[in-house]
Every structure is written in structure tokens, then in C-alpha cells.
Amino acid sequence: MKKAVFLDRDGVINDNKKPVNKPEDLILYPWTIDALKMLSKADFLLFVVTNQGGIEMGYFTEDDLHRIHNEMTKIFQSEKISIHDIAYCPHFKTKCTCRKPSPGMLLELAKKYHIDLKSSYMVGDREMDIEAGFKAGCKTIKIGKPCKNADYTVYNLLEAAKLIVHL
């Protein structure tokens, strides 16, 4: 069984002051590359799990989302960082098992890649991320304001990566 870090996208990997509806809207935080390299070197598989309800709401399309994610992975590949998979929930109003706080995306990836969830982490900036990680059986790290349900709270992804590799 492998260990993984599940990462929310907006607010964790990239700035989300304004919506990311096209590739040029994607602005990585300055610490993202260093954090992901640190996690990769520590033998964690990296996954992005992101709610993208803007698709159902009509703000952008699944094609737009794929172009955004292609741009993001191209940047990571140029830095020799491998994101093993990206899961997203396109729903906002529709009842589903994939939209966080449901653990559906994490559970599917864990099954597909033989991930030991007890040895893995969910890193997110919202309580729904923490709840999804908790329900999946991961340790949870909240970025930003403290969340009573999170195992840990840190300022940014680089702090989360340092914490993970030293635990």
C-alpha cells in the first residue's frame, strides 16, 4: 500500500482571490513548487481533489477545466513534479457522492492506486476539505484559519509539506 497527499486546488495550490475559469486565471502560490517537490521526495503520491461546481453553474465548461489542469500539470512536469491524478466534482446543486465534504473522490483514488488512507493526508483550506479527509480516514491539515476538526492547522502548503515529512 502506498501513501498519498490529497490536495485541494483553489486556495492550496493556487491563489483563489478570483475564480479560476480559464488557464490564464491559474496563479500558483510562490511556495507551491517547493512544497510539492518536498512531498514527492518523501515518496508520497500526489493527487488533486477539487470541487468545481462552476461547471454545473455554467461559469465554465469541462473542456475549460481540462485546459486549466493541463496548464497546471505542464508547469509541474517542467519542475519534475508528478501529480498522479486529478479528481474533480462538476456538481453544485446535483446530489452526488463526489462533492466534498463527501469522501467520494478520495475513496475512488485510494482504490484505483492502492492507497493506505491511514498513512495519507488531506490538505485543504475549507472545512469541507477537512471533513472529506476525515470521512476517508486520512490525517487532515487545514490551511488558514483554524478548524476544530483538523488534525493540524498551518499557514500554507509549504508549512503543510514540512509538517508531513517530519511526522
Plain-language structure description:
The protein is α/β, with parallel strands linked by helices and 167 residues long. It has one domain: Rossmann fold (3-Layer(aba) Sandwich), CATH 3.40.50.1000. Helix content is 37%, strand content 17%. It contains six helices and six strands; from the N terminus they run E-H-E-H-H-E-H-E-H-E-E-H. A six-stranded parallel beta sheet has the order 3-2-1-4-5-6, sandwiched between helices. Helix 1 (32-41) links the parallel strand 1 (4-7) and strand 2. Helix 1 packs parallel to helix 6. The chain is globular and about 40 Å long.
Summing up helix and strand content along with how strands pair, one would put the structural category as: alpha/beta
SS elements, strand count: 6
CATH C-level label = Alpha Beta
Number of domains: 1
CATH superfamily: HAD superfamily/HAD-like
Elements, N to C (H/E): EHEHHEHEHEEH
Mean pLDDT: 97
Determine the N-to-C terminus distance. 18 Å
Low-confidence stretches: none
Number of helices: 6
| Proportion of beta-strand residues | 15-25%
| The CATH architecture | 3-Layer(aba) Sandwich
Structural shape: globular
Question: Sheet bearing the most strands, described?
Answer: 6 strands, parallel
Radius of gyration: 15 Å
Helical content band: 25-40%
CATH topology: Rossmann fold
Main β-sheet, spatial strand arrangement: 3-2-1-4-5-6
GO molecular function: metal ion binding; phosphatase activity
Active site: 8 (nucleophile), 10 (proton donor)
Subcellular location: Cytoplasm
Cofactor: Zn(2+); Mg(2+)
